[in-house]
Amino acid sequence: MLYIIIPVFNRWHYTRECLESLRRQTSQDFRTVVVDDGSTDETAAALARDYPEVEVVTGDGNLFWTAGVNAGIRRALALGADRVMTLNNDVVAAPDFVAQMLLAADQHPNAVLGALEFDANTGETIYGGERLDFRTNTRYDLLEELPANKRTGLHPVTYLPGRGLLIPKAVTDKIGLFDEKRLPHYLADFDYTSVARRAGFPVYCNYDAKLSTYPEESGQTLTRKQRSLKGYFQHLFSIRGGGNMVNFTHFALKNCPKPYLPYFLLNGYARRLVGYFLH
């Protein structure tokens, strides 16, 4: 059984939209676990009142993304999950999203799978996975490489984000859960899927499974809306900072081949130091 793990903190309107999209799935062969990390809005009451089918795990407000996801996965595994999927609450799943993910998972039972993403506001395709060349710290965007008529099926990638990330139990059995100690929020998903790939599990973006997302709601986007010295410091060192230098260092040390590590680190530090002001 597939268990879908959704970590939330407030923003009930997004969570409701996400859960409603799950109710509309053509395949209902899954269960949902919401990890409510101390929400202060109507989340807890609305979940209990309107979504009795949802399993709720409660946090104290200090879990952040990684520990929240891990808490949900532990609960799912205790309930008998043989597959788990992490899903952000600010996404809307296409009606056949689960069906397409399960189809691919049945055909590739040891693969880690992600989804093709669209901007919920414009309908534009915005994410289809990427490959990273650690030698030069160069990212290759699959959407730029694939013509429109090839945007179907599975495509191998270096890592995947946690938005609609399907993980077989064989992966958690071998490499454990997400690294909540060193990567409490950002990069935990890229790290986990990169570690899984290096452990021998294929990592694919499934172009037949589609999600709509709200890019403007990402922490990185919000931090950069009004650039300031405080925002710059948060970008580089805050637990929610998209350019967090410590997180990047941990990711690099765990995933970059040693011969390429010095350049990868220096290049990555430079990009983070100046990137806040360029994007």
UniProtKB/TrEMBL annotation:
Highest taxon listed in the record's lineage: Bacteria
InterPro entries membership: Glyco_trans_2-like, Nucleotide-diphossugar_trans
Keyword Glycosyltransferase: yes
A GO MF term: glycosyltransferase activity
Keywords: Glycosyltransferase, Transferase
Residues covered by the Glycosyltransferase 2-like domain: 4-125
Gene3D superfamilies tied to this protein: Spore Coat Polysaccharide Biosynthesis Protein SpsA, Chain A
Family under the similarity heading: Belongs to the glycosyltransferase 2 family.
Protein name stated in the entry: Glycosyltransferase family 2 protein
Species name: Hymenobacter setariae
